[in-house]
Structures are given as C-alpha cells and as structure tokens.
Amino acid sequence: MVKIFGVIGHPVAHSLSPVMHNAVFRSLKIDANYFSFDVGKNELQDGIKGAKALKFSGLNVTIPHKISVMKYLDIIDESAKIVNAVNTIKFDNKKTIGYNTDGIGAIKAIKKRTEIEGKKIFIFGAGGAARSIIFSALFNNAEISVYNRTEEKVDVINDEVMKKLNKRIKKVDLNNLMSELENCEIIINATSVGMFPDVNESIIDEKFMPEGKIVMDIVYNPIETKFLKYAKKKNCITIDGVDMLVYQGAESLKIWLDIEIKDDIIKIMKDAVIKELKK
Ligand code: ATR
C-alpha cells in the first residue's frame, strides 16, 4: 500500500520538503508520496488524529506547531524531549512518536566542514531552531555563546541546559558582541533574519563580521543570504541553510523508513531543493 507522508504547518505552501522527499521516493522506487498540509492552530489536534486514522506513515512538523504538537502525541523521543520541540512524527502501530532532527541536521552540515568537539560556537537566536542547535552542539562538547534580540530567552535556555545537561551557555549582550564574535570559531545565524522576501537584511552589519571564521546560516531561501555574502567577503568558509534542511530531512527518512541515507541520496535531496529554489 502506498505510504503517505507530509509536513504540517501554517503557512506551509512554500515548504521544500515535498520536493525533497518525493525525489528520494522516486529515486529509491519507494511507493510513497509526500504532501504539504496547511493546518491552523485550532485544527492541529484533529489533524494528528486524522493522520493517525488514515494510517499515515510520517509527518514533519513546522512553524508554528513544533511545541504545541507535543501534547497530542503518545510518545516523545529523548531527541525532542530535551529540546522541547518536535519536527518529525512517526506513526508506528497506531502510536504516534515525536522526534527532533533539526539539531542533528545542523551538526551534520557543520561536520562536513569541520570538527565540533571543543570548538567555540556563536549562535544568533533563541527560538526553536536555535534551541535544537544549542543542545546538539553541547552534546558534541562545543562551547556555546548566544546573542538574542530578546535576551531573557537566552536565560530560559541556560536554565534548561543547566538542569538537563549540567552545562552552561554564555549569554552575550551588545557590549561584548564584537569580542565574542572574534573569539569564536564557528558563527551561526539561527534567526529568520534575511529570509525571503527580506533578502537585504542581515543579523549583523558587514563591519561586525570577523575574518576567517566558519559561518553558517539556517535560512535557505535565498541560498546565499546577505549574512553569508558578508562572510564570504571576510574570507570565511560558509555553510548555507540547504545543507541543514537536507540533513534534517534525511534523519526524518531514517526514522520513518529505517534505512541508511547514503551520500548519493543526500545529493538527490540537495539537487531537488536547489532546483526548486532556482525556479
Ligand atoms: P524558529 O522555530 O524558526 O527558530 P522562532 O522560534 O519564532 O522560529 O524564533 C525566531 C528567532 O529569530 C528568534 O530568536 C527571534 O528573536 P526574538 O526571540 O527576539 O523574537 C529571531 N528574530 C526574528 N526576527 C528578528 C529580527 N528582525 N531581529 C532580530 N532577531 C529576530
């Protein structure tokens, strides 16, 4: 029987997940289809119930449901419990299990370029994506500094990091932003700043971008954000958001299909996403 997968979110029309996952299904000759489902906040519980009743195989969850969906699931995997957000649901023998693959997706994208262990990582943002990256990077024994526009959110994450991992993250404010950026080895924009249509925005001005770092953006539309353009000008190695998108998707596929996702499949996913973005 054909397996049904999808992404639920609001808005979700521009999601690249259908193109990316369907490319894998076609290439591996898996009898499956992946759709996007625009589900509002008030319809979320019915949406999950309906997907379960219709024997869906798996769902991705995106903005704004990553946290609120947790209360409608039967089991929360450790990967999601620790971050407090779900981006992947597996429907398994009538049970719904929530996972989080965002953090591991980001870590894999970075590890393609450099080791993480012992590195100093600077993260802009304290939302869902930033949280996932912070926890995964701490698991990989990185040192983390965080700046967020709403500074209190960094304190909240720090409390959770203390409780759950007995570690600390460094909260950065505007006074020590420059010196912290200079001090770190990897810089990540984990905010939505610079995303289409606001393509002329960057979380920092060009003059604040230090020389010679590894710089990553979680924004994938456009592929080369203003932030990454500044980084290139300053001789930094850049990692675009497409890699994280592809790797988190590959981790979801692994959970749903119980298969190893090899490099040739990663390439198929990446090509499908880039082709769509260039349209
Ligand atoms: P996601 O799940 O994608 O991380 P989110 O939880 O809404 O989405 O988080 C968005 C992040 O981008 C937050 O860190 C947010 O900063 P605030 O916590 O201060 O809201 C950040 N962000 C969004 N727009 C921003 C802007 N114009 N300037 C600075 N930070 C911004």
What's a concise summary of this model?
With 279 residues, this protein is of the alpha/beta class.
How would you explain this protein's 3D organization?
The structure is a single chain. With 279 residues, the chain is α/β, with parallel strands linked by helices. Helix content is 39%, strand content 19%. The strands form two sheets. A six-stranded mixed β-sheet has the order 2-1-3-5-6-4. Helix 4 (102-111) packs across helix 5 and helix 9 packs across helix 10 (263-277). The chain is globular. The chain starts with a strand and ends with a helix. The model has no long low-confidence stretch (mean pLDDT 96). The structure holds 2'-monophosphoadenosine-5'-diphosphate. Residues 63, 125-130, 148-150, 153, 191-193 line the site of 2'-monophosphoadenosine-5'-diphosphate.
Task: Break the fold down into its secondary structure elements and pairings.
Elements: E1 3-9, H1 17-27, E2 32-38, H2 44-53, E3 58-61, E4 75-76, H3 78-83, E5 88-92, E6 95-99, H4 102-111, E7 120-124, H5 128-139, E8 143-147, H6 152-165, E9 170-171, H7 177-183, E10 186-189, E11 214-217, H8 226-233, E12 237-239, H9 241-257, H10 263-277
Parallel strand pairs: 1-2, 1-3, 4-6, 7-8, 7-10, 8-9, 10-11, 11-12
Antiparallel strand pairs: 3-5, 5-6
Helix pairs in contact: 1-10, 4-5, 4-9, 9-10
The structure holds 2'-monophosphoadenosine-5'-diphosphate.
2'-monophosphoadenosine-5'-diphosphate (ATR) binds next to helix 5.
